[in-house]
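Assemble and predict.
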Amino acid sequence: VTAAENCPPELVDLAHSMADAAGTVARRYFRTPIAVDTKPDSSPVTIADREAEAAMRTLIAARAPAHGIYGEEMGAARTDAEYVWVLDPIDGTKAFITGKPSFGILIALLHRGIPVLGIIDQPILRERWLGAAGRPSTLNGAPARVRACAALDKAVLYATSPDMFKGADAAAWETIRRKAGLVRYGADCYAYGLLASGFVDLVIEASLQPYDYCALAPVITGAGGVMTDWHGTALGLASPGQVVAAGDARMHASALAALTGARPASG
Amino acid sequence: VTAAENCPPELVDLAHSMADAAGTVARRYFRTPIAVDTKPDSSPVTIADREAEAAMRTLIAARAPAHGIYGEEMGAARTDAEYVWVLDPIDGTKAFITGKPSFGILIALLHRGIPVLGIIDQPILRERWLGAAGRPSTLNGAPARVRACAALDKAVLYATSPDMFKGADAAAWETIRRKAGLVRYGADCYAYGLLASGFVDLVIEASLQPYDYCALAPVITGAGGVMTDWHGTALGLASPGQVVAAGDARMHASALAALTGARPASG
């Protein structure tokens, strides 16, 4: 049995401990007056992001020192290792700094490049989605399951912001949002949790980094959904950053067709 | 002392009871499989909206039978009364039906047409902002206070969706969102609570109904902020549905100038 078939339980335990530690940091700083720095890519970062990532790295160093790490705030180490942790200590820092509890702690574990574990944790609402190869996804320990919805014009579609779609991506987004039944913005990673639990049918985003999306795929897959890049390719560290998650495989196929059809042949 | 100077305490108590009752209904139906009907204006409505409004109306009938009511789901009665309650049992029904706890119960009390009390209640997070004439606004009983921020290019700006700006409003929105420091979507009425608590500097919306905005003004004002329509006029039942709320009066003035400057002379 490989990790892609069954994620080792001790690594699931480690991931829970990491989410616990990062959540403690996030709760301590949420809605307190902390400085907001601007990173070279103009995205904001705070002491909460840095301390939460440090807390997770400390646990990896203690319990799985040979594993690689790819973290948003503190860089990459040993990414050629058999196991690599991909960490976003606070996904949705913009929501975090405005006091809105839709941000999340994202923890992914890759085995030979394939995401085999994902956690989406909202530490203020204390909601944690877990997806791990070989077991059904859960929300706070109870089964999380997608809902069926095949028709795009009935779909609830989420994206964090229309501003995340640049260049040709904007035209593709415009095409699909006009076909969707209901379009909502502003949920950050929380939208993927809602999809895994059967309240949302489709999440389409772009301009993402590996630490933004790697944790989401195992949660969606283990809940019965499908998540790939816009070309239908499985997600990994080298993916292009455009993702589509659907609760229903037929919806996923329709979304891919709509996204691809809207893009120029050179795209 | 008039109600515009001091909202009578027994009416504040009644408003709390109404929010409690509506919250009980909302929690009972949140994330359960309920039917979603479509209203003539194509907005969604559920049994939770209707039961929550009915619960509030029952309390008004029992404790203030002479008061008028203007409710989203069950219509208007006695709107020429000295006191009129303006009710949105679930503001953000689209968020509600997708399992996202950013919706809110909105309760306003108008005295001779002027909003003298407002409640923004998020029943899942159990957060309640209260604004009442003659007293400081509160979040769960503790003082809520806006923050100072005069410069538009430093402002955190929220709107529920860019799709709410139609026609000339869209051009005005585009102008101001380009000037803002950080733009976020998707918070519904919760954004105004965040502004009252000093985490957001500006909320600009359009296409609103009286039950969407009347409850917000007393919360913002009592927290030290300013909220009017896009022309700087105080809000009431006959307002045009375009609102601007700011934590800092200088920000409010800048926003009005930016919004007005962007609109055609005929607008």
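Chain A touches chain B through 29 residues (CB under 8 Å).
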